[in-house]
Write a structure and sequence with these properties.
Blueprint lengths: L3 E6 L6 H13 L5 E6 L5 H12 L10 E6 L18 E6 L4 E5 L12 E7 L9 H4 L1 H9 L6 E4 L2 H4 L8 E4 L5 E6 L3 H4 L6 E6 L2 E7 L11 E5 L8 E6 L4 H4 L9 E5 L1
Parallel strand pairs: 1-2, 1-3, 3-5, 11-12
Antiparallel strand pairs: 4-5, 4-6, 6-7, 8-9, 9-13, 10-11, 10-14, 12-13
């Protein structure tokens, strides 16, 4: 049985929706199950997927045993026309190579960052219409079942490559509370591996252009400097971050949304 449940939803911390969803999950969960909640911005499947990967792929000594992740970011953008009876994206269930289980709404990039780590991917028998608040009214039932190792809600095994989109490249993947922008540039790729520490870069995001210094860590630049360096996310293949020591890189670039393309040139 899973003893730790991590909920990832696009509700603001302290919002009434969080309170109702939390209550619904707690209603029938065994008292031994611990729950933690994380928020992303509304409809932000890129940040959802980035967080799913960081938690799901964490080193064994840095994640709870028997971890189940529930990721609920459902912008309902898979169909552009008006929806009948509040119909929305269905739920997917997957198991990673390390044994971590994930239940996620089949939306956008919610599972993209673990795509290469999925051992099995399943569609589920799940109500996808009839309620505006499926996170409260329907989804907890599937999580309760998975916690108890009742997988009768699984429907068809799916082809991972055909079902899950690749993670976006060279974009903002996640913005933390300090204003550090975790990008999808990753160690092991030609960019940024060819950058030399101390090099100066011209970075453009949207209409904002700034100069950044290539660094090897967060604190080997001067206070107030903008830097580009390997961050704390990505396990053995670190994602690079844009950060401003003593400030906010996100504010520096005008608060761009995740998914914004990052253009980099060596000056």
């Amino acid at each position: 049985m899973n003893n730790y449940l991590h909920l990832i939803c696009d509700y603001a911390p302290g919002d009434m929706a969080w309170a109702e969803v939390f209550s619904a999950f707690c209603a029938k969960l065994p008292g031994t199950v611990r729950i933690h909640m994380s928020s992303v911005s509304s409809f932000d499947t890129i940040a959802t997927g980035f967080l799913v990967a960081q938690l799901g792929n964490a080193e064994e000594d840095l994640r709870p045993k028997d971890l189940l992740i529930f990721a609920n970011c459902a912008p309902r953008k898979d169909i552009k026309q008006a929806r009948t009876n509040n119909e929305g994206e269905g739920l997917l269930f997957c198991t990673l190579n390390n044994g971590v289980e994930i239940i996620a709404v089949n939306s956008g990039h919610s599972l993209s960052f673990v795509k290469s780590d999925i051992r099995e991917l399943w569609s589920t028998v799940s109500e996808d219409q009839g309620s505006q608040f499926r996170s409260r009214d329907y989804f907890p039932k599937k999580v309760w079942a998975a916690i108890k190792e009742d997988f009768s809600f699984l429907l068809h095994q799916l082809d991972v490559a055909a079902t899950i989109p690749d993670p976006p490249k060279e974009v903002i993947g996640y913005v933390d509370s300090f204003g550090n922008m975790k990008t999808t540039f990753r160690s092991g790729d030609e960019i940024p591996d060819n950058f030399q520490p101390g090099s100066r870069l011209k970075v453009r995001i949207g209409g904002a252009i700034r100069t950044a210094t290539v660094a090897s860590g967060s604190f080997n630049v001067l206070e107030g400097d903008l830097a580009f360096a390997p961050g704390s996310s990505g396990q053995e293949r670190k994602y690079w971050e844009l950060f401003k020591r003593g400030g906010s890189a996100w504010h520096e670039f005008g608060n761009p949304p995740t998914g914004s393309t990052i253009h980099i040139e060596v000056t």
